[in-house]
Amino acid sequence: MSDPAHPHPGNARLYSLLALMLLLWSANYIVGKVILREVPGTLASALRLVFSTVGMIPIYVWSRLRGYSQPHPPRTLLRLGVLGVIGVGLNQLSFLAGLSRTSVAHAALIIALTPALVLLIAAFSGLERVTRWKTGGLCLAIAGVGILQLNPAKLEGATLLGDFFMFVCAFTFAFFTVAGKSVTSRFDTVTMTTFAYGASALTVSPVVLAAHHGFSYSSVSAITWASLVYMAWIPSLLGLSIYYYALRYIPASRVSLQSYAQPLVATLLAVVLLGEPVTGGVLASGGLVLSGVFVAGRR
Question: How far apart are CA 111 and CA 10, in angstroms?
Fold first, then answer.
């Protein structure tokens, strides 16, 4: 239910926005592969956080001046910042670190575990009741990831380390989704996005940038810089803003179900744009993972 200050926008609008977010996040895998041709994954993540924060600050200032964003106690903002470092900073760091070591198909399928991880964390926290359907769905999804790792033909350029980083990416975002559910009602979307990215840029980016102090930025092409800006501003700021907005009105486990279609969309884009092959192991794993996520998230 929504409060009078935040009237429900309607399901049609919410799910249309989530569909747009799905497309933006699916294209992120392709843009990421373009960036990784010239920039190391961890450095690209740090730059992405900085660009996102720089892009968000004027929006936040404008929102405060117009009265759309309200001031909050420092302690509450600190909690939001800590959650942001986990759900945004570590999430994006592990995303590009994993994508540089695995294929788009593997990455998207592991990210598809996010709704299952949300259910597990919510159940462990006492926020969701574990049912037979949820348990069965989780087992199917986990079995699907197991098949993905047992596939002997690594024709897609995937590695176990890359897949592990993608799992960390999914887990940190799932943790943020559950832990942030009680926080999102206190903040508007602009404040949420600004402080989550700002805290990440202040804590994660300096360490990573210092580790890559000898990198030659002048060798990076214009298309790669444009891709970094796209990744920082479009899927990150716009996509995450949609996610926070929907989280106000839809249960966390249902908002995260957008991951159900993400592997299909991302893999199709990778086949068409990057020429990545799709093996039988990936298809079998995908069927189990997506079926499990669907079963676990059904009413």
Answer: 28
C-alpha dihedral, 136 to 139 to 144 to 147, nearest 10°: -140
pLDDT in tens, 150-167: 654 454 567 888 889 999
CB atoms within 10 A of CB 62: 12
Question: CA 43 to CA 240: how far, in whole Å?
Answer: 21
pTM of the entire predicted model:
0.76
Q: What is the pLDDT of residues 217-258, one digit of tens each?
A: 999 999 999 999 998 888 877 877 787 777 777 776 666 666
- 283: nearest Cα among 95, 137, 82, 148: 148
Does residue 280 form part of some domain? no
Q: How many domains does the chain have?
A: 1
Q: What range defines the domain where residue 32 resides?
A: 11-114+158-256
pLDDT of res. 155: 47
d(CA 95, CA 91): 6
Q: Interior CA angle at 13 toward 10 and 18, to 5°?
A: 120
- 244 within a domain of the structure (yes/no): yes
Q: Is residue 35 part of a domain?
A: yes
Q: What does the block give as tokens for 177?
A: 């989704």
